[in-house]
UniProtKB/TrEMBL annotation:
<keyword id="KW-0552">Olfaction</keyword>
<dbReference type="GO" id="GO:0004984">
    <property type="term" value="F:olfactory receptor activity"/>
</dbReference>
<keyword id="KW-1003">Cell membrane</keyword>
<keyword id="KW-0807">Transducer</keyword>
<feature type="transmembrane region" description="Helical">
    <location>
        <begin position="130"/>
        <end position="154"/>
    </location>
</feature>
<comment type="similarity">
    <text>Belongs to the insect chemoreceptor superfamily. Heteromeric odorant receptor channel (TC 1.A.69) family.</text>
</comment>
<keyword id="KW-0812">Transmembrane</keyword>
<keyword id="KW-0472">Membrane</keyword>
<dbReference type="GO" id="GO:0007165">
    <property type="term" value="P:signal transduction"/>
</dbReference>
<keyword id="KW-0675">Receptor</keyword>
<dbReference type="GO" id="GO:0005886">
    <property type="term" value="C:plasma membrane"/>
</dbReference>
<dbReference type="Pfam" id="PF02949">
    <property type="entry name" value="7tm_6"/>
</dbReference>
<feature type="transmembrane region" description="Helical">
    <location>
        <begin position="265"/>
        <end position="287"/>
    </location>
</feature>
<protein>
    <recommendedName>
        <fullName>Odorant receptor</fullName>
    </recommendedName>
</protein>
<dbReference type="GO" id="GO:0005549">
    <property type="term" value="F:odorant binding"/>
</dbReference>
<feature type="transmembrane region" description="Helical">
    <location>
        <begin position="293"/>
        <end position="314"/>
    </location>
</feature>
<dbReference type="InterPro" id="IPR004117">
    <property type="entry name" value="7tm6_olfct_rcpt"/>
</dbReference>
Length: 391
């Protein structure tokens, strides 16, 4: 079996996307990251101004549906830049997590095979979730581009009256709506939005595919602690104290990682809880008001569900494993240990393990499957409220 390596070598796809997404926490290149983030924001600024002018036009016309459409499409772009800023703000916590994973992987190479199987399974699950996350984002990107580009190509090749379809239906500033299909504005805005969309996908890949292995690493540490405490309780009397101390170190390291996870991702998770409900509601409203099935907004709904589902799923898994560890400690045959020094530590470990461990947004919203369900229900409730106000 191959030895466990560093985070960069273990999760090569994550590292690659984090680097090109300008979120990899390298102290030597932090100033370059900040500079390139500002350059990309400046590159996006002209599109933002065009969108703002279009929103002002629809506001004067009282066309709420078009304003809502812009919020649904442009909002995630701005969130992508916010994620880059948050990653830079939390660079110390991110670097700590990477170094912790590197140190743990080096230590895991010295553990018995029983422990290594647990670690390999955790890494395998993380890689599988990372690939699934990227695949869904690519599908969303194809849905976003596919309809408009295919319709334009088909119309230009086979229609007697060729038409053009925009990827992002945005008007040319201070001109009639039909002017948006004129050259060179149509070609310029199409290429411009395609470039920005690639950046959008990279942003939404690089952040989450770092969070996934970090949370799964914490979950693996809980499983290792459970095996460690069971092994310690049946070890030889002369090794008992040392093995219990090692198990306690595993537990303390786990809680330290949880604290760093909250510091690294808590603000972002809080924002996506609020934004996903709003974005899903808006997309449902646009689809219903247009009376057609727009694949772009269906893709946006799928994206919102994925962004909310993944942290809720791994967060609930982590919470469940943490609570299960208290039962594992109690069932570790501690009653057979005669050493009073060891016995007095058991209630303390059980009490600490019973304290619920969870991943929270804004230190308020616990990310678990129940929160995912509540978010989807809230989105539909907001949607029905908008529909009732309109009619």
């Amino acid at each position: 079996m191959k030895p466990f390596t560093t985070f960069d070598q273990t999760f090569k796809l994550s590292t690659f996307l984090m680097v090109i997404g300008l979120v990899y926490p390298n102290p030597k290149t932090n100033w370059i990251r900040l500079l390139l983030t500002l350059v990309l924001f400046a590159a996006f600024l002209p599109l933002g101004i065009i969108i703002l002018l279009d929103v002002c036009r629809y506001f004067k016309q009282g066309d709420i549906l078009e304003i809502v459409k812009h919020a649904a499409v442009a909002g995630p772009f701005f969130l992508g830049f916010a994620k880059m800023v948050l990653a830079y703000w939390s660079k110390d916590e991110w670097l700590f997590l990477i170094n912790q994973i590197n140190d743990d992987h080096a230590n895991y190479n010295t553990l018995p095979e029983e422990y290594k199987k647990i670690v390999r399974d955790g890494i395998r699950k993380s890689k599988l979730m990372i690939r699934g996350w990227c695949l869904v984002l690519v599908i969303i990107l194809l849905l976003y581009y596919g309809g408009s580009l295919l319709l334009t190509i088909y119309s230009q090749l086979f229609s007697s009256n060729p038409s053009k379809y925009m990827i992002y239906d945005i008007n040319r500033p201070y001109m009639e709506p039909e002017a948006r299909f004129e050259s060179p504005f149509y070609e310029f805005i199409t290429i411009y939005i395609m470039c920005m969309s690639v950046l959008y996908v990279i942003n939404y890949s690089s952040y989450e595919i770092f969070m996934i292995p970090c949370i799964n690493h914490a979950a693996t540490k809980v499983l290792l602690f459970c095996v460690k405490i069971r092994s310690a309780m049946i070890s030889r009397p002369e090794d008992l104290g040392r093995n219990i101390a090692e198990a306690v170190k595993f537990q303390c390291a786990f809680f330290n990682i949880i604290r760093k996870l909250d510091e690294a991702f808590g603000v972002y998770l809080g924002f996506i809880f609020l934004i996903c409900a709003f974005q899903t509601c808006v997309c449902l409203y646009i689809i219903s008001e247009r009376n057609n099935t727009d694949v772009k907004f269906i893709g946006s709904i799928i994206g919102c569900m994925e962004i909310m589902f993944v942290p809720c799923y791994i967060g609930e898994k982590l919470q469940s494993l943490s609570q299960q560890s208290a039962i594992e400690i109690y069932n570790s045959a501690w009653e057979n240990v005669q050493d009073p020094r060891v016995r007095k530590y058991v209630p303390l470990m059980i009490a600490r393990a019973q304290d619920p461990v969870s991943i929270k947004g804004f230190s308020v919203f616990t990310f678990e499957m129940n929160l995912f369900v509540k978010t989807m229900k809230s989105a539909y409730s907001l949607y029905t409220l908008l529909k009732s106000q309109k009619h």
